[in-house]
Each structure stands twice: as structure tokens, then as C-alpha cells.
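Hi,

I'm pasting everything inline rather than attaching a file, because the server keeps stripping attachments. The sequence lines come first, and each chain or strand is labelled.
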Amino acid sequence: TSSAKSSYELVTLTTWLLKQERAGVIDNEMTIVLASISTACKQIAALVLRAPISNLTGVQGAVNVQGEDQKKLDVISNEVFSNCLKSSGRTGVIASEEEDVPVAVEQSYSGNYIVVFDPLDGSSNIDAAVSTGSIFGIYAPNDECLAEIEDNGTLDSVEQRCVVSVCQPGSNLLAAGYCMYSSSVIFVLTVGTGVYVFTLDPMYGEFVLTQEKVQIPKAGKIYAFNEGNYALWDDKLKQYMDSLKEPGDSGKPYSARYIGSLVGDFHRTLLYGGIYGYPRDKKSKNGKLRLLYECAPMSFIVEQAGGKGSDGHQRILDITPTEIHQRVPLYIGSVEEVEKVEKFLA
Ligand code: P6P
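And the predicted assembly:
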């Protein structure tokens, strides 16, 4: 008789986090913060899945600090994320796309970590049930910066203290990830030891490890740009874009894939290779995407997978934000593809 098949070793996000903690890769506080983020993502996934049924599509009727119409789910996702982080008791400061300024978590709860996030990126896709996602990054508190400012006696408000502690280069990130709400709910995470992919099993509401140490292909012939902005681009960028349409020595031009949701376009780029770009243009001098909670976390992830994140000239992770909602141009994906556009833009 054949021996009983060894049971498949099922690793959930919870067991994976505890394993990293036991190995000393992350501390107990980080384990708790990441677990609370995964809980927020599960709650948002449930809301997104039933949005048309529970009348959660459409606009909230308010405008956020970006001047964008807030969707009902933008507001709710922000509350879900903030509440999960506050109740974790291990978060010190949170900075959200949906909040004008960073928020210091009240003393009774607070821990140390600084969490930046976009609670529901690509929410304009919700009404058409196209993929959306949550993006997050985690920093250690920036004490030396605070001490220096306090010595000079220039820090006079909690808000300023928060802004100072939040404005760090992406190279300081301790952890970054995203949750994509698509045909599957996919939780992607790095704590600096490679990129791990978890898939939500709706049967019992756990994220299950489905890919480890993901490596992005060095090159890839898929590009994700909004070419509707072509007329507004610099000439050098137009030359790059035109070059993608020539058959080249492989005899085949590139393929265009663009869903208008950074998380969906990025996840496909991470697994299949290629490039996602949101350039500056005559209308948006610094592009559209925000450095702190979109470009930096995604660049940390792509570098952990052997890829590259650039503003067209420099490494995204080397840029220190001066303002929490600061925008930067973003070119991210396979090393060869990002280097190709950088050459055109030089
Ligand atoms: P456009 C969504 O609003 C977002 O921030 C990203 O998720 C997405 O890639 C981009 O903007 C889409 O912008 O101008 O092409 O509609």
C-alpha cells in the first residue's frame, strides 16, 4: 500500500510572522502591527466584494486633501485601517492618503512604529468591480531628527512632530506591502528578506503563503502607462514610448496593459516582468503618484524582488519627502526596462 501522502505544510501569514519573530527578523511590535494591517485588509476585501450590494459604490460627496472626489469606500477603508492600527496598541503615528496631516495615535494606545498607507488605491475602479488595492509601509520613529529639531526649539506642535517623524527616505522602510482586491485577494509583504505572497482562503479567512522570495524577470515586454497623456510628455519620453512600438530584433513590439490601478498593474509587472510608469507631464509637474505611501513602499518591494524603482533619474528609495503628500514621477519594474527609460530621459 502507498504510504500516506505527507500532509501539505500550510503556512498562514500568522504562522509566517511568528516564524520571522522567532528568527529575530522582526520584533513582537512589528508582528502585531503587520497582523493588524492584514486584519484591516481582510475587512476591506469583504467590503469591496459586496460594494454594489451594500450601496458602497459611488462618491462620498467630499473632496480629500488631494482635491480628489472621495469614494464612500475611500473613507470607510481609511477608518478601517486607522482603527486596526490604533487598536493594535503598537503604532505611534499614521499617515494616510486620506488624511491632511499625520495623526499621532493617542498616548494610551500608542507604540512606536510609523505606518504610512493608501487605504484604497484605484478606488475609481470600484463601481466597475475592477481590481483595487491597499498599500502600506512601516518606518521606525525618527528620534534623532525629532531631538535635533527640539534642541533648536522649533518644534511647537504634535502635527509638526508627526510630519518630521514621518518624512523619511524609503531606504528607511522596515516593512512594505500591499493587498490586491482582485479575482483573488493577494497580500504581498517584505520585511527586508525577500518578497512573500499570500492568498486569502475565503473558506476560513486566512492568508495562506502561495509564493516565496519572488524574483521579478530582468526584462519584460509589457508596459503600463496612460498613453492618453502622450501629448503632454517630454520629447525624450515620447521617443521612449515610440521605441516600444517598433518590432525590434525580437520581431515583436511590446504589449500595453493598463488597468488604472497601481496595485493591479504593479502585481502583474512583479510576476510577469515589464514596466509601470507614471511620468511627469505638462499638467502634473511631478506626476500623480505620492512618494511616501505609494512609490516608496512599491520600490522597496520591487528592489527586494531584484527590480528597480526610479523617478526617471534617481532611485526612489533615496528621495527624502519634504511634505507627506509629495508627488514624484515613477518608473518601476524589471531592471532592464527601467534602465531603458532612464537612458532615454538622460
Ligand atoms: P490615471 C489611481 O487613482 C492611481 O493613483 C493609481 O492607482 C493608478 O495607476 C493611477 O492613479 C491612474 O491614473 O491618470 O491614468 O487615471
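The mean pLDDT is 91.

If the labels don't parse on your end, tell me and I'll reformat.
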